[in-house]
Protein 1
Amino acid sequence: MAELTPTQAALLRIVCTVAWADGECSTAERELLAELVARHLHGDSPGGLGEAEREAFLAERLPVAGLDTLVAELSGADARQLALKLSYMMVRVGRRSPAEPSINAQERVAYRHLVELLALGDGKIQEIEWAAEADLPKKEGLAQLLAELTAGWRSPDDGRGPA
């Protein structure tokens, strides 16, 4: 299992903090969060971050006020931009039902605090949010989103259509 750099660990903790801002992180959210972070931090390497290590990060449930310290641990503009993108993606998929707003109130507060801390500028924030939105499939629930994200994992000759 690969060790995380301090910047990678801070990124993971930031995304986890935003995901937990509403006091809930369902099994589906936990799986999606782990997958998104593993993909962005380890280039789809399955051995990049072990399940126990991911779960340890997810279990930390850091307070939103802790974002100040975590943002200070990010090195460079690329890490700051990735923190914003991954956090935006997580608040967008955190919706529990179609009847709820696309981003719940507690996660919105945490995300806005993160935006302020990152101080990226309005144009850059809009660009990152647009890119994150484009990376999210237009699906109604987390189960559909997980299915979409894992669709390419099938073997092309498994009889279930194109991989």
Protein 2
Amino acid sequence: MEVNKICGIKSTTLSVELTNLQLGNDTLILTDANVVTIVGAGCGDIDMLTIKAARAIAAAEAIVYDNLVSKDILQLANDNCEMHYMGKVFGQLCVTQDQINQQLLRLSQQGKVVIRLKGGDPNVFGRGTEEAYFLANHGVKSQFIAGVTAALGCAASAGIPLTHRKLARSVTLMTGHLCDDAPIEWAGLLAAKSTMVFYMGKQRAANIAHGLLQAGAKLALPVAFISNGARPNQSVIHTTVKDMVEVASGIQVEGPTLLIVGEVVAIGQELAQLLRDVDEQQGDATYHINVANERVYA
């Protein structure tokens, strides 16, 4: 089966072909009712989904999914698959992790081929291992399928390198949810010139800015907010540590927002400008890094 036939198509035939598609050295068992497969759906639309994840979705008899999984990915499930939405949204009353765990256990005990489908990667702030522990403690095996995590997918889609030989030799991934009550070595991160990526960072922008400034960060340190990254409605806003709190308060989007802090953000801006210059020179405005909704706050 050709890979490009996966995108944008939903049919029983597709599900069968995906299930039967054999890749070398594949040790995962996708149709074992005794194993719950915890799958990363990637950080955007179906183009960010791995073939292995698509195969697992097509083979599933029951899928427990969160709010970050796009609709076109869900459409890869076969018509008889049970779909169980158990998403969490910041600041809203949602299902608990225990309820999710119990649902996975209950479906597995019913003898179904169960997929736990999560946006991004299940083990990068996805609590995939917590669910695997719970299942193992109740006699149920599990396996993981990696997904393209938001830090990688969103940064690439926005044209921002996470590392750069002269500016950033490391990258640190953090969850914004803990920035108000967990100790973070801000000074160490700045000294190491590590690119900092905050998942759900918009809601904790004030805490992040305070920590950075207290540790001696420059007011002009570049910052990028990427909302709905790697999706058609992606929005990229460039600013600095000095203005990031004000900018964050003005972002009115329903989808997730990733925050990137570091000199690499400026490199991304320079690259975007060079590409625009190439377009103008060639009289062609059709090729751009996906920053059509880009805004810059100086």
